[in-house]
Each structure stands twice: as structure tokens, then as C-alpha cells.
Specification:
The structure is a single chain. The chain is of the alpha/beta class and 447 residues long. It contains 17 helices and 14 strands. The protein has three domains: 167 residues, Rossmann fold, CATH 3.40.50.720; 137 residues, no CATH class; 83 residues, Antifreeze-like/N-acetylneuraminic acid synthase C-terminal domain (Type Iii Antifreeze Protein Isoform Hplc 12, Alpha-Beta Complex), CATH 3.90.1210.10. The protein has a six-stranded parallel beta sheet, with helices on both faces. Helix 6 links the parallel strand 4 and strand 5. Helix 7 packs across helix 17.
Length: 447
């Protein structure tokens, strides 16, 4: 890839890629840890609602106090240090910042930050995939209008999956399915932030040591995050979404060729060309050896006898027909891999994944019987979970996107397991995220 060599050249020339980061939580902290080893990238500033927390995290991952004590953005640009503050608008507007990394995890705020950056002529790497799941096509269109790059974050599973899909297609293979792994049992759909560590596999002490957010991790466990990430993958790759939502077929990494093919051939898919999630547990809760719980995969097809013979000759794992095979990464390294996006955008002007269509959507699905008057608590909370649906289903039926569910007030009851609709809630209609999403729906034409 030569990205490290190019970063080194930029450092030697005294022209580092200059970035600003909004939000300094877990993902951002992992990125900050890696910046200590990287030439050619200068973090001009990091802003957070709690600057003291941002500074604490910088020191926690190994930064020296003197490296993050720039008096302001101008001082940071001049000295190569990093400014810590709380003014996102000032960071985005500063001429020294080339790329804005949106890392808040708040989908409504993330949309606003992305649009702000586009207006300022800045490229954006959007770590907040929750925003991409319900506004990605609109954000990609706005970036194109502004002549800047909008990109998913490498290290997160959607961008890594897009990379595998691109590899398969660039090799000339037909992509049959792609997605990620997950630890899944149907009862996890009802998990709350209070119960998440009981199922996750960490003690509460380990979670507190790592400064892990239980609501965020619960979003993984209850299926919201897999739905969000699969929507982003579908919209960036052109793969379709299962009409009944994710099925979570259980299997090992080497079961992918047999599982991720059409049901007519004994697999788990409605048809070829889908996103899906592979579970690391059997339905009775037994862990599956050699799982891909923390990784990503692509299933592809060899279309000729010659290619199938090559699979056989080189001992490639396939299904019993010899036609279907897979490539996978068993782990993703989250923010530790984010420098790849920074280098790709800053050096090559290439996104590491971006929405090109509106195929997948994530609806807010009731976790229990909900009563009129209740306030929804959004992704990872106790009231709703994210359910992956085809946009061709969710938009005409007025399903409320999970990304807009935080603080929405129910005006009529919703039964357990049913999608919440716009008609069921009172919602802030003045946010940039709401307006962009509704504009996407107005112009929506099913693929």
C-alpha cells in the first residue's frame, strides 16, 4: 500500500496531514495511542464536551503533557502541538485543519458536524457509523456537492468489510455475501445497559478499567450495532438487505462458504448479493470454535471450472460444490486502525468506504411493550433496539430510524417487537439530521 512510506515523506517534508477530532472517547483514544508512533499526521486539535476528559484520555494513552498544551489552534498549527477545547465550530473552521474526524458517537450531532465540515471545505472521516446508517447517502451527496471526501472509518467493521468486497470484485470474483461476526442469541435483543456485562464476557471491573461505556457496548449485544453496520455496508457496496432482517446463522470462519450462499443450495441467504451476520454461538449458547465474532468476511463465487480447479489445487476452503469460498479477518482493531483512513484520504484522496446507494436502513424496534408518554433512550438503551430492514420497506412504512430515537416521546403505545414509526412519536424536527433524513426519504426511489 505504501501508505507508511508516503506518511514518512510528508513528515520529512514538514507537511504532515493536519487533522482535527471531535470527541475523545474509546475509539478516539485508540487512534490517539497510535498517533504516538506515526510520522506525517498532526492532530491540530481535539474538542469534546468535556475537555478535561479529553485531556485525561490523551494522558491515559501515553501522551506527554507538554504535547497537548497548545494555547489555542493557532499555537497548535505553529508549534506542532495539540489544542484541547470544546469549540467544534472553531476547530472545523480553522485553516490548518484538512480532515475532520467525527468521533462523538452521537448520530444527530455527527450529522451536524459533518455538514459543518463540508460547508468549510473539509474532508470528513465519520467514525460515528450510527449517523451513516440513517443519513449516509445524504451525507455522501452533500460531500460531493462541496467537492470534499466523506469516508467511513477504517478499523470499524463496515470499512473493513467494504475493503474485502472491493478486493473480491477487483479480483474478478462474484460477491455472494459480506458482513461481520457477532456473539448472538435471540434473547440478547432485550439486553439493557444494566445486564450487558453479564452476557458480554467481561467483568464489571474489567469494563470500568477500560473506561467502557455500558450503553455503547449494549448496542453491540442487542443487535443494534450489527444492524447499523450492515446498513452501512449495504449502502456502500450495493449489497441487499434481508427482507426479514438479520438471521445470524451460527458458524465458524470456515463455515462461511457453505452458510453464506442461497437457501436453495443449503445456505442461509434469501439469494446471492446480501449482507448478513455470522453468530459465534449455537442456538443453545455453545461457543463455536474458530469463530469470527470480532471480525469481518466476504463470501465469493468462482464462476468457471478453471477457477474452481484453482481453488482445489491451492487447498482453498470451499463449500461442497467447490464454487463458494471466503476471505475473512478474525479481528478488527477499531481505532488502532483509523490511521489508514487518514492516510488514504489525506494522501490518495480516497475514501475507505462511502455510501453509493440507499438499500439498508435501521428501524427502532420496541424491546418491550411501550406505553404512550414514555421517552425513548435510543441506541443501546432499555426501550428500543435497531432492526435492519430494506429501505424499500422502512421508508414507505414510515419506520422511525434508530438514529433519531433518542429522546423521542411516544404519543401512542407500541407492542414488543414492532417498529416504532414517525407517527408514534413527538420528535425534534429542527435538527440537521432530521431535515437531511427526511430529504433523503422524499427523494427515495427503491433500488
Amino acid at each position: 500500500m505504501n501508505l507508511f512510506a508516503k506518511l514518512t515523506q510528508r513528515a520529512e517534508a514538514g507537511k504532515p496531514i493536519r487533522v482535527g477530532m471531535i470527541g475523545a472517547g474509546k475509539f478516539g483514544s485508540m487512534f490517539l495511542a497510535q498517533l504516538l508512533k506515526l510520522p506525517g499526521i498532526h492532530l491540530v486539535g481535539v474538542v469534546d464536551l468535556n475537555p478535561a476528559n479529553a485531556r485525561s484520555n490523551l494522558l491515559f494513552v501515553g501522551w506527554k503533557p507538554e504535547r497537548c498544551d497548545a494555547a489555542g489552534l493557532d499555537d497548535a498549527a505553529r508549534t506542532g502541538k495539540t489544542h484541547i477545547g470544546d469549540d467544534a465550530a472553531a476547530l472545523v473552521a480553522h485553516p490548518a485543519v484538512e480532515i475532520v474526524i467525527e468521533c462523538t458517537g452521537n448520530p444527530v450531532a455527527a450529522v451536524e458536524h459533518c455538514l459543518m465540515a463540508f460547508r468549510a471545505g473539509k474532508h470528513v472521516i465519520n467514525v460515528t457509523v450510527e449517523a451513516d446508517a440513517f443519513c449516509g447517502p445524504g451525507l455522501a451527496a452533500k460531500a460531493a456537492e462541496a467537492g470534499v471526501i466523506y469516508s467511513m472509518a477504517y478499523g470499524d467493521q463496515p470499512a473493513l468489510t467494504c475493503d474485502l468486497v472491493d478486493w473480491a470484485r477487483a479480483c474478478g470474483f462474484t460477491v455472494v455475501a459480506a458482513g461481520r461476526g457477532h456473539k448472538w442469541l435471540p434473547q440478547y435483543r432485550k439486553s439493557t445497559p444494566e445486564t450487558v456485562w453479564d452476557h458480554w464476557g467481561l467483568s464489571r471491573e474489567q469494563a470500568e478499567r477500560g473506561r467502557l461505556n455500558p450503553k455503547m457496548f449494549n448496542a453491540f449485544l442487542d443487535g443494534s450495532k450489527p444492524a447499523i453496520e450492515c446498513a452501512a455496508i449495504a449502502n456502500a457496496t450495493g449489497l441487499d438487505v434481508p427482507s426479514e432482517g438479520l438471521a445470524y446463522p451460527p458458524g465458524s470462519a470456515e463455515d462461511i462458504p457453505a452458510l453464506m450462499r442461497p437457501r436453495s443450495l443449503g445456505g442461509a441467504l434469501e439469494r446471492e448479493g446480501m449482507v448478513e451476520v455470522l453468530s459465534s454461538l449455537t442456538l443453545d449458547g455453545t461457543p463455536i470454535p474458530y469463530d469470527v465474532r470480532m471480525g469481518v468476511w466476504v463470501c465469493f463465487r468462482g464462476d468457471t471450472d478453471y477457477v474452481r480447479n484453482c481453488f482445489e489445487e491451492y487447498k482453498v476452503v470451499t463449500d461442497e460444490t467447490g464454487r463458494y469460498s471466503a476471505l475473512y479477518k478474525r479481528w478488527h482493531l477499531i481505532g488502532l486502525e483509523l490511521p489508514i483512513s487518514v492516510a488514504s484520504v489525506g494522501l490518495r484522496a480516497e475514501a475507505t468506504g462511502v455510501a453509493t446507494s440507499f438499500r439498508g436502513d435501521v428501524a427502532a424496534i420496541a424491546k418491550r411493550d411501550l406505553a404512550a408518554g414514555e421517552i425513548l433512550d435510543g441506541e443501546g438503551g432499555a426501550t428500543v433496539a435497531g432492526g435492519l430492514r430494506p429501505a424499500a420497506m422502512s421508508v414507505p412504512n414510515g419506520f422511525l430510524p434508530l438514529g433519531l430515537s433518542q429522546h423521542a416521546k411516544l404519543i401512542r403505545p407500541v407492542k414488543d417487537g414492532m417498529p416504532v414509526t414517525y407517527a408514534d412519536v413527538l420528535i425534534d424536527e429542527n435538527s440537521a439530521a432530521f431535515r437531511l433524513r427526511r430529504a433523503m426519504e422524499t427523494g427515495f426511489v427503491p433500488a
